[in-house]
Amino acid sequence: MKSRIFVLAVMAGGLLLGSPAAYGQPVTKLTANLSPATIDAIWCSALFLEEAYYWDEGSQDALHYEDMAYDLGERLDEVMREAGLPTAEGEEIWAIFDEAAADFALDDETSYLVELDACEEAYQADKLQLR
User: Fold this and answer.
1) Closest Cα to residue 80, out of 69, 92, 68?
2) Which among 38, 90, 96, 103 has the fewest CB atoms less than 10 Å away?
């Protein structure tokens, strides 16, 4: 039993090291033409925006997460345009990912915080790939 838990923990850790986000990330046909790195970055942006809502509006923490979400979001909007996605599809992707981030934060706060931390570390180290 202990070895099974250890294996699961190692697999989970490997997923997080390989990409900053994975567990609560939604799957949609709308992202079919986007790279896995782009999809992971969209997820990180959605997690940042969700975390901004947790903090008091206008607080340093809220502004910190909003800034990361909007900076990343603007760059990702350009990547989606370059991939040929119509604006309406891009907006639908954002809505799906934002809703999934909110659900993830409520359903599994521990995993949400782990993914949020991984995304924030990758963002601050400029290691989030957008393409």
Assistant:
1) 92
2) 103
66: its two tokens: 């909003």
* Backbone dihedral angles phi then psi of residue 33, each to the nearest 5 degrees: -95, 10
Q: Would you state the torsion angle of the CA atoms of residues 21, 28, 99, 43, taken in this order, to the nearest 10 degrees?
A: 20
Read off the tokens for 118. 């991984």
pLDDT single digits (tens) 62-89: 999 999 999 999 999 999 999 999 999 9
Contact residues for 106 (Cβ-Cβ < 8 A; gap 6+): none
Q: Which amino acid is at 87?
A: T
Token pair for 19: 């990409």
Query: What Cα–Cα distance (Å) separates residue 75 from each residue in 23, 43, 57, 131?
Result: 23, 13, 24, 11
Residue (of 30, 7, 15, 36) closest to 130 by Cα position: 36
Instruction: For 85-120, write each residue's pLDDT tens digit.
Output: 999 999 999 999 999 999 999 999 999 999 999 999
